[in-house]
């Protein structure tokens, strides 16, 4: 073990010590830095440029294959272009396995067929896409997304709720603010706390701050939460009959980091709970004209990522990326 680790570290050191740049990309590099407001210290620019060139090449190769029909989705350079996949995983995700709280299990509804496609955005259940920033609070965005949806279902009012309230105040439930957390622990916090503030009264800051919950500004209650057993069939029934559902996925692949559009399928994805690293919101599902089935997923990386902040993920392909592995919603 030790000699292998030593060798790996040594090799990395050699690579980053002498990054070589393709000078024909100078203008493109400057344009990219300007567009995304990037400024670097002199001693880090070389390494960032090398990472960017690497990503650029990987995207180009993928899109060449996409043009030949070898992939169902394309990639694009975006604001994550200067992050290695390892750095990306550290800052942009934030889902931590599963906590141990008790929850009820979703029962398949006894009604007959559900629609072939569902998109809760069209029915007022979904707020605009947000950006979690450099803070692993995806779990809070995912939890707020399904809670906002269930409150809308109950009251007919779409009131954005505070992710920051969850980031700051649910530590004793096992959540770790910007270092990650669980949606079930978030729901348990709201239930015990007797409310969750609106995001207008308690705005998102992308950092850990002290808890400032104020019952005066609460706009939601939680009575419990329901877990959907790991089955894409049951997940479809749940989305169709309940509304947007909080889910966790394996997102730690360059293909996800730079997704532009199309049907996302990643052969390297795991669907095992221990490999899931990111939480998102399932807002619907459907089927393309060629019969390919997808899940409609809202991410929290801003509107410039993917398709206006959304991604279509392969459905009924052996639970690709674990989308049905940890799925739940609150009862209100
Ligand atoms: C939030 O708190 C965690 C745990 O103490 C810490 O590791 C992390 O760096 C903090 N993140 C931010 C952005 O403040
Ligand atoms: C939440 O429950 C408390 C206690 O029953 C109640 O006073 C409050 O009005 C409820 N809030 C909402 C937004 O429904
Ligand atoms: C899967 O991962 C391996 C090792 O990291 C990599 O070589 C391969 O290209 C990946 N396959 C896909 C489809 O991304």
UniProtKB/TrEMBL annotation:
Domain Cathepsin propeptide inhibitor: 29-88
Protein's UniProt keywords contain Zinc: no
PROSITE patterns reported for this sequence: THIOL_PROTEASE_ASN, THIOL_PROTEASE_CYS, THIOL_PROTEASE_HIS
Gene3D superfamilies on file: Cysteine proteinases
Gene Ontology terms: cellular component: lysosome
Subcellular location: Lysosome
Domain of life: Eukaryota
Signal peptide annotation: 1-17
Main localisation: other
GO annotation terms (biological process): proteolysis
Keyword field: Disulfide bond, Hydrolase, Lysosome, Protease, Signal, Thiol protease, Zymogen
Domain Peptidase C1A papain C-terminal: 114-331
GO molecular function terms listed in the Swiss-Prot or TrEMBL record: cysteine-type peptidase activity
The UniProt record lists the keyword Signal: yes
PANTHER family: CYSTEINE PROTEASE FAMILY C1-RELATED (PTHR12411)
Family per similarity comment: Belongs to the peptidase C1 family.
Designated name of the protein: RGD1308751 protein
Organism: Phodopus roborovskii
């Amino acid at each position: 073990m030790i000699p292998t680790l030593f060798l790996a570290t040594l090799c990395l050191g050699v690579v980053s010590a002498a990054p070589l740049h393709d000078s024909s990309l100078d203008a493109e590099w400057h344009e990219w830095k300007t567009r995304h407001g990037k400024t670097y210290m002199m001693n880090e620019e070389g390494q960032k440029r090398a990472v960017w060139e690497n990503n650029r090449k990987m995207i180009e190769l993928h899109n060449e294959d996409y043009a030949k029909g070898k992939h169902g989705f394309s990639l694009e350079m975006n604001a994550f272009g200067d992050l290695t996949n390892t750095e990306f995983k550290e800052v942009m995700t934030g889902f931590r396995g599963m906590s141990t709280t008790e929850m009820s299990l979703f029962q398949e509804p006894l009604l007959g067929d559900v629609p072939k496609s569902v998109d809760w955005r069209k029915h007022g259940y979904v707020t605009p896409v947000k950006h979690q920033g450099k803070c692993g609070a995806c779990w809070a965005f995912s939890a707020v997304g399904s809670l906002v949806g269930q409150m809308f279902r109950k009251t007919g009012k779409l009131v954005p709720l505070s992710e920051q309230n969850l980031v700051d105040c649910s530590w004793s439930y096992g959540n770790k603010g910007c270092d990650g957390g669980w949606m079930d622990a978030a729901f348990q916090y709201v239930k015990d706390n007797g409310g969750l503030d609106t995001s207008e009264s308690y705005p998102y800051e992308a950092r850990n701050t002290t808890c400032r919950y104020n019952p005066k500004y609460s706009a939601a209650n939680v009575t419990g939460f329901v877990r959907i057993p790991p089955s894409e069939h049951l997940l479809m029934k749940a989305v169709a009959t309940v509304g947007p559902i909080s889910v966790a996925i394996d997102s730690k692949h360059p293909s996800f980091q730079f997704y532009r559009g199309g049907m996302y399928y990643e052969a390297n994805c795991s669907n095992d709970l221990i490999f899931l690293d990111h939480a998102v919101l399932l807002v619907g599902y459907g089927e393309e004209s060629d019969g390919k089935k997808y899940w409609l997923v809202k991410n929290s990386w801003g509107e410039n990522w993917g398709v206006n902040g959304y991604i279509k993920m392969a459905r009924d392909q052996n639970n690709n990326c674990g989308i049905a592995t940890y799925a739940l919603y609150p009862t209100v």
